[in-house]
Amino acid sequence: MKRALALGLVTGQFLLLAALAFLPHGTLWATNVGVIVAAIALGLVGAVLVVLGVVGLGSALTASPIPRAEAQLVTTGVYGLLRSPIYAGLMTGGVALVLVGASAWHVVAWIVLVGLLSMKTRWEERMLVAEHSDYRSYGARVGRFVPGVGRLVSGE
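and the corresponding structure tokens:
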């Protein structure tokens, strides 16, 4: 059951990212030079977060929210600023796609993506708390998707 839920979350995440990339362009706002520059900047920030997150995890990397057995907890590099830099990067890159897409469907797909990644992160973090005795104190110091925002509190 746990692996099936993990596969469903990962599949949903990739389908939403594909939707953001391939939904028809809308007309909610003009995609002028300013919008394109903002989208490029956000896309680059998102890509950098994803790459730094992937490199930082090394052998602990998995698309599944289920942590790898025996993997060490990574709290350095980008993980010293954000607990979930890969997801933060996907959300940031998603905003870039929303800006370029300019449709209500893009906005809806991004909101659903943020909800899915938030749910996936909370589930993953419950498993990390159970696996790593120092995860709760790490989570109390480091924000989830934004530095300093979404820190763990007792009982979470």
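(Above: one complete record from the training split.) The radius of gyration is 16 Å.
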